[in-house]
Amino acid sequence: MKRWAFLFRPQWLALFVVVLAFAWLCFTVLAPWQLGKNTKTSRENSQIAASLSADPVPLTSVLPHQDSSAPDQQWHRVTATGRYLPEAQVVARLRSVDGDPAYEVLTPFAVDHGPTVLVDRGYVKPEQGTALPAFAAPPGGTVTIEARLRDAEPVALGKEPFRADGAQQVYSINPGQVSQVTGVPLAGSYLQLVDNQPGGLGVIPLPHLDAGPFLSYGIQWIAFGIIAPIGLGYFIVAEVKARRREKAANAPETPAATPQTAEEKLADRYGRRR
Questions:
Q1: Which pLDDT score, from 0 to 100, does residue 57 have?
Q2: 3-state DSSP call for residue 57?
Q3: Percent of the chain scoring above 90 in pLDDT
Q4: Residue 18: per-residue pLDDT
C-alpha cells in the first residue's frame, strides 16, 4: 500500500477531482448539448425540405384553438384570412439577416373564426448605428396572408422587454412573452411571412440545409470524456514505475560474496577449517 500512498496527497486528489469533473461534464452537459443541437438542426432540415414541395394549408387546420401549437408542422406553409392588430405590435432586436444586424417586426393577426397568432412581418435594417428605422404599418381591414409556421423561441434569460424608439422591443420571438407584454392572447406557434404578402417587410430567408458540425463535436466530447480517465490511469501507472526505479537506484549496494575454494566448502561441510 505504501507505493500507492502518493495518491492521497492534495495535488493528486485535486487532479482526480478535475479529471472526474471534466469527464462528468463531457457526458452530461457538453456532448448532450452538441448532440441536441444536431437533432434540432436535422429536424428543421427535414421540415424545411418537406415544406418546399407541400401545398399551403389553412392555418385553422393546424392551429384550431387559441392555445394550439404545431411543433411537428414547423416551416409548413399556411394561409390565413383576418386582420392585423398594429396596436399590439412589437419588434425583436439583435437579429441577424444574411450576417447583417436587423430588427424583426412582430404584429398579432386575428384569424377569422380562428386564433390570434403572432406574425413576423419581416426585417428592417437599423439606422445610425442601432436606431430603429421607420417602417410601413400593416394594412387595415381583412387580408389573406401566406406564411410559414414557426416554433416559439426560448425567452432570452436576463433580458427583459423594454420600450425604446417609440416601439416595444423584445429579445426573442416568443408568443407567450409577447402576449404578456401586449395583453393580447396568442397561439403557441407564430407565422413568418413569405414573399409578396400584405404587410410584408424584408423577407427573412430560409436557413441553409446544412447539418453543421454538431454531431462531430458531440462525438468528440464523448471521446474526451473517455480519454480523460484513461489518461489519468496512465499517469498513475507511470508514476508508480518511476518511483520504483528511483527507489531501486537509491538502495545501498550489497557487497558481492567471494567465491569459496574447494577446501573452504569441505571445512564448512564438516564444521572445521584448515
A1: 93
A2: strand
A3: 43
A4: 87
Quote the longest CA-to-CA distance of the chain.
134
272, exposed or middle or buried, with CB in 10 Å at 0-12, 13-18, 19+?
A: exposed
Domain containing residue 166: 55-193
User: Could you give the number of structural domains in the chain?
Assistant: 2
- How many residues in the chain? 274
Please count the other Cβ atoms lying within 10 Å of the Cβ belonging to residue 31: 20
Per-residue pLDDT averaged across 147-155, rounded?
92
Please tell me whether residues 98 and 167 are part of one structural domain: yes
> What single letter denotes the amino acid at residue 48?
I
**pLDDT: which is higher, 50 or 120:** 120
Classify residue 209: in a domain, yes or no. Answer: no
59 shares a domain with 49: no
pLDDT value, residue 90: 96
Q: Do 60 and 36 lie in a common domain?
A: no
- Rounded CA-CA distance 106/121 in Å is 6
User: Which of residues 31 and 174 earns the better pLDDT score?
Assistant: 174
Is 116 found in the same domain as 92? yes
Pairing verdict, β 116-124 and 167-170: unpaired
CA–CA gap between residue 50 and residue 197 (Å, rounded): 22
* 66 pLDDT more than 80: yes
Co-location of 162 and 130 in the same domain: yes
How far apart CA 85 and CA 140 sit, in angstroms, is: 9
Closest to 118 measured CA to CA, from 159, 157, 168: 168
In Å, how far are 2, 147, 155, 215 from 62, measured between CA atoms?
71, 13, 24, 31
